[in-house]
């Protein structure tokens, strides 16, 4: 299993290496100005030289993303449970939840700054804006996908409400929850970055923005590379968590081919 | 004379595990499914309801399991005399007395639970601690041919094994009556035969009251003490065919003359419905 998974990663690694070579050769051969596209080698040098500062900014952005994700996971699951548990909530919350997606989150984000100030919590709030919807909706769908016949059997055996939730609905919703978590993990970094742009003193988004003001292309790219690495890392962490939590279920083995 | 008197005297002794009186039910806006239906099952008896598809077997089970309320009539489950007649339907909120254990047609196992934990679910719902439930399941797994499957997830099991887990789960849930809803209908012929004989062997050992529903005449006759044939819709009366075959039964009993007679009778009853052409 493990070896096959490692082998399946070979093509993508080779492709990334190829892109790196094209980047390096292209910028060198065509003498692209460094403030348009810096040479890859310059970006790597910048990454290395600025590693102390970048590390601190990385930690800030990671903290914002993780806090936002955690808050969305808790409240998204609670919202999904309300939608599942009450007909009234399903008819009021669910449509509202979907409608909320027509509001441009980017336009809402400055409000978060007004409410939560220029420190950590305004960024966390923007991350929550980005990640709440996929978590809540996918978890709600997970609850709905619970095998009704199992629930009926349990009810006929006199199962309590509590038993129905803990032994049937919650385990049934886990796959949906993890689908939501993976999506949310991938976009959480974007939310944190936007939050930092709107007003912040630290974080990789802020770092990249400042570097762009100084026309330091290699530093901008260094920041962006780290941001996407963080997004990929969070996604992989969520996938790993999923594999662990759903171990032994057939569904995971089927789609688990990628990661 | 004397033996006759004894036989008569023993009739009130026949303790009913299940008693249905004047049951009426129909879905809103549709023709009624049951109209004044009455039948019963004695303690330790194996009774089969034989009916063509579409006569409302599954609805009947849902009524007996307390998932639906009858529009008229009473359903008494268990020998508990203190059940209130004004509350005939088994209320899922008050487990304990007079319960049925229902085994659905589809196995309905939880994909996230192992064989052991799936089988233990019924006990858990009955209030047994998880540890104790597992212990009791473990003791029974070998007899159910599941000794090596304890830690396996349902998707790794064959159809027959899944049904055995489902049966064990329902049996351990501890009802007075076991309701089996066409449990073998999805199995191939060979597995099906194996499972029928297996069910008989379990029943010989446990002597649970079983109400079995099927549309397979051979299956009904092979397994049961009595077969109740539903031959018209709405179901109002059931024709009873007692099966006078010895116990324990073997598969060769289907070649017995008694079996053939009973089968002829069942075919005639079911055929009359098709030939009736009243609808």
UniProtKB/TrEMBL annotation, chain A:
Taxonomy, superkingdom: Bacteria
Localization per Swiss-Prot or TrEMBL: Cell membrane
Gene3D superfamilies the UniProt entry points to: MetI-like
GO BP terms in the entry: transmembrane transport
Family: Belongs to the binding-protein-dependent transport system permease family.
Keyword Transmembrane helix attributed: yes
Signal peptide (residue range): none
Transmembrane segments annotated in the record for this chain: 65-83, 95-118, 124-143, 177-199, 219-241
Domain ABC transmembrane type-1: 58-238
CDD domains in the cross-refs: TM_PBP2
Name listed for the protein in its UniProt record: ABC transporter permease
Species, as recorded: Cohnella zeiphila
Primary location: membrane
GO cellular component terms listed in the entry, alphabetical order: plasma membrane
Membrane topology annotation: Multi-pass membrane protein
Protein's UniProt keywords contain DNA damage: no
Keywords tagged on the record: Cell membrane, Membrane, Transmembrane, Transmembrane helix, Transport
A Pfam family assignment: BPD_transp_1
From TrEMBL, chain B:
Chain positions covered by the region annotation Disordered: 77-99
UniProt keyword annotations, A-Z: ATP-binding, Nucleotide-binding, Transport
SMART domains associated with the record: AAA
Lineage top rank: taxon: Bacteria
A Pfam family: ABC_tran
Cited InterPro entries: AAA+_ATPase, ABC_transporter-like_ATP-bd, ABC_transporter-like_CS, ABC_transporter_ATP-bind, P-loop_NTPase
UniProt xrefs under SUPFAM superfamilies: P-loop containing nucleoside triphosphate hydrolases
Comp. bias intervals (Basic and acidic residues): 79-89
Molecular function GO labels: ATP binding; ATP hydrolysis activity
All copies of domain ABC transporter, residue ranges: 18-257
The protein, known as: ABC transporter ATP-binding protein
């Amino acid at each position: 299993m493990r070896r096959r998974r490692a082998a399946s990663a070979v093509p993508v690694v080779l492709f990334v290496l190829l892109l790196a070579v094209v980047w390096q050769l292209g910028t060198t051969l065509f003498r692209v100005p460094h403030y348009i596209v810096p040479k890859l080698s310059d970006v790597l040098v910048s990454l290395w030289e600025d590693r102390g500062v970048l590390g601190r900014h990385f930690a800030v952005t990671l903290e914002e993303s993780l806090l936002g994700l955690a808050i969305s996971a808790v409240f998204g699951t609670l919202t999904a449970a309300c939608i599942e548990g009450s007909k009234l909530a399903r008819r009021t919350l669910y449509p509202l939840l979907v409608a909320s997606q027509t509001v441009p989150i980017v336009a809402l984000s400055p409000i978060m700054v007004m409410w939560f100030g220029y420190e950590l919590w305004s960024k966390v709030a923007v991350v929550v804006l980005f990640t709440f919807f996929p978590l809540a909706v996918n978890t709600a769908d997970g609850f709905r996908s619970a095998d009704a016949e199992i629930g009926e059997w349990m009810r006929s055996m006199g199962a309590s409400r509590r038993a129905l939730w803990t032994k049937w609905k919650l385990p049934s919703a886990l796959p949906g929850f993890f689908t939501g978590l993976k999506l949310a993990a991938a976009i959480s970094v974007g939310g944190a970055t936007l939050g930092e742009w709107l007003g912040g003193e630290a974080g990789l988004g802020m770092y990249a923005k400042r570097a762009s003001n100084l026309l330091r292309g290699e530093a901008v790219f260094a920041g962006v590379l780290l941001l996407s690495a963080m997004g990929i890392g969070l996604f992989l962490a969520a996938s790993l968590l999923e594999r662990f939590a759903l171990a032994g279920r057939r569904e995971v083995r089927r789609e688990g081919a990628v990661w | 004379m004397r033996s006759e008197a004894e036989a008569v005297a023993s009739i009130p002794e026949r303790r009913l595990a299940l008693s249905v009186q004047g049951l009426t039910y129909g879905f809103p806006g549709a023709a009624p499914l049951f109209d004044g239906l009455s039948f019963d099952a004695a303690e330790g008896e194996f009774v089969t309801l034989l009916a063509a598809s579409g006569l409302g077997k599954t609805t009947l089970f849902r009524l007996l399991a307390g998932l639906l309320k009858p529009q008229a009539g009473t359903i008494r489950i268990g020998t508990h005399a203190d059940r209130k007649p004004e509350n005939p339907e088994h209320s899922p909120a008050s487990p304990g007395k007079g319960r049925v254990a229902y085994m659905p047609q589809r196995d309905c196992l939880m994909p996230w639970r192992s064989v052991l934990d799936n089988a233990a679910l019924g006990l858990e719902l009955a209030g047994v601690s998880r540890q104790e439930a597992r212990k009791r399941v473990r003791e029974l797994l070998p007899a159910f041919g599941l000794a090596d499957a304890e830690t396996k997830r349902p998707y790794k099991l064959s159809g027959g094994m899944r049904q055995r887990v489902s049966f064990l789960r329902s049996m351990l849930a501890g009802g007075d009556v076991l309701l089996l809803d066409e449990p073998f209908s999805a199995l191939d012929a060979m597995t099906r035969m194996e499972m029928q004989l297996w069910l008989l062997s379990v029943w010989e050992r446990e002597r649970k009251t079983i109400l079995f529903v099927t549309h397979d005449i051979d299956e009904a006759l092979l397994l049961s003490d009595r077969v109740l044939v539903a031959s018209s819709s709405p179901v109002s009366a059931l024709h009873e065919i007692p099966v006078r075959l010895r116990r324990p039964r073997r598969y060769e009993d289907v070649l017995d003359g008694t079996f053939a007679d009973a089968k002829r009778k069942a075919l005639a009853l079911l055929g009359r419905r098709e030939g009736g052409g009243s609808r």
